[in-house]
Every structure is written in structure tokens, then in C-alpha cells.
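The instructor's notes for this session suggest beginning with a concrete chain rather than abstract definitions. Hand out the sequence below and ask the class to guess, before any prediction is shown, which regions might be ordered.
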Amino acid sequence: GGFVSHAHPYRKRSYVPDVVVHMDMTVLQGIETYNAGNSEIADQKAEEKCKELGLIPTAGSDRHHLKEFETNPFGGLEFDFEIKTNEELVAALKGGTGKVVRWGERVHF
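After discussion, reveal the predicted structure:
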């Protein structure tokens, strides 16, 4: 009853092992196609892979501290209704009702 999405794929950092960057994504249900902490190239690769595999796009702000929202407050998923439980979130994701938002712009796949 869960949902597995690869968070910030193609991110190149010293703390991210290559095995994560090059993992088998065919086992996933979604791929994070926008992450405010990623480079534009990393997000483009993620979007291309998501479309290629027919997976569900997800997104995140990657903000861990309130001060970080000052430089880029946008990024995530938007739904036309309030989601109150994990089960509702999984159903909404699997139903494809979320819209990726980056820098306040809605992205449709």
C-alpha cells in the first residue's frame, strides 16, 4: 500500500555514493523530477528518466531549515484537495492528481 519515489536522483555530492546515482529505477513508482537542492541538469535527467519509464513525477523543496525558504521557497507537489493521511497521499500519487511545482510554476507531464 506504499509508494516509492527516488528522491533527488542524479545528485552529485561527496556524500552520495555512485550506486545511488546509478540505481535500477525500474523498481520505482515515482521519481523526484524537481528538487530545489539539485542542479538544473540533474532535474532534467530525472524528468527524462521519469517520462522514459512512465513513472509518476514527484517534487520537493529540500528545505530543512526555515532560513533556506528565503532563497527558494518553492518546490513540491500541489493537489486540488487537502490530504490528511498517508493513505490519501498514496492514493493521490498513484491517481496522478498531483502537480509538480517549481519556483511557483506548475509543471504538467
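Then share the key points. Residues 7 and 36 are 11 Å apart (CA to CA). The mean pLDDT is 83.
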